[in-house]
Request: fold
Amino acid sequence: MTQPFKGKNKSGLTRELIEALIPMFEQASAGVIAIDRRARITWINSSYSKLMGLGDPASAVGRPVRQLIPHTRMPEVLESGKPLLLDIMEHQKQQLVVTRLPFFDDADEIVGVIAFVLYDDLQPLTPLVSKYRRLHQDLAAARKALAQNARTTRYSLGDFVGASPGALEVKRRARLAAGREMPVLLLGETGTGKEVLAQAIHAASDRAGKPFVGVNVAAIPDNLLEAEFFGVAPGAFTGADRKLREGKFQHADGGTLFLDEVGDMPLALQAKLLRALQEGEVEPLGSNKVSSIDVRVIAATSRDLVAMIAEGAFRSDLYYRLNVFEIPIPPLRHRLADLGVLCEALLEDICRGQEHQSEMTDAALGVLAGYDWPGNIRELRNVLERALTMGEAGVLDAVAIGKMLPRSVMPVAAHLAAQPVQPLAQTLAAAEARAIEQALVASAGNRSKAARLLGISRSVLYDKLGKMS
Reply:
């Protein structure tokens, strides 16, 4: 008589044992099927055939199992020789709990696989399935937390939305910056997307796999900035930790450190920051030991650093250290041609996960184009969110948008709502012409300076002026 457990496959089942167990399998399960070493069906009972919707069991014998049951994992067991003791198989919106076992000959060669359905109804397993789902949710939450702790980026260059000349120039410079290791200085008003751009540069650089650490200088009290940047030595002061607390430079080692609102940094810390950048090393607060760091710095500010240098509020040597590669980001009022695509992208993001989507009329875009946008894209998002919250329909029209803007703009909304709708291109062209006229007035007719104010090249300005004349 053949022994069921033999040689190296002591946990394997022989054909004789499988055949002896088949009656038991049929009684204890909701269906049984077996295949040979070529993955062809050698035996199938009527219960399994009925579950799979195969009709007469005899017609399935001899056919490749994947031809009849595309998602079966029996060939996988055949290849590995390892059983799959508990698995959930999806078949036509039905969930089946299945066990698959390989069986062997006297030479310990695999000769086939048998599978039987333990349950064709998951109701008895509800407590187990609920526990599995909870564990799965906990795992997803843990992965999300790990991703956040790993200080990864969320934005790429595609997230800096716009196709106006000013936006395209920003993206061109950002790509150049991503390919270089030099410090970058982002200049732009609040809400123009400086952090999005900083993350995009990091994500497109050779440091993309390393940490991206952002710190808003303006949000940290002056007396805590040094500790926040360089860390604190054990016992540096009363109440300090008994082990080294690392600062932002240590956290960003190997990656990118983003200094937002660097113009708000006090002079005393500016000197220490300059030394860290020049020497590539930091000294924790209360320590005499320095440690080397490898950090690429991207700084951003909404302030006029050149004017601050003249006033003695910002160190010129730090400015030149930070401003190796400068990227001016134009305000929203200087790239109104991007309003349409910006609104589309913002509305898509705001409505993500919701049942209804929203759209905007041309008249509503005209109202937006007539506003000055001191808060830039951040303010635009806020206006759209409030309009969606207060509105009852999914369409944002001129009146709905006008109600969200300052009172001085509301009469414009009412006026536009009563007027025939103009083509969007015509509305945006008029807004662009108005922005160019304002820039020429502000620069006293100096076209080079006007182009800088608009965030476009001088040749582009000349081209636009030619079309306006």
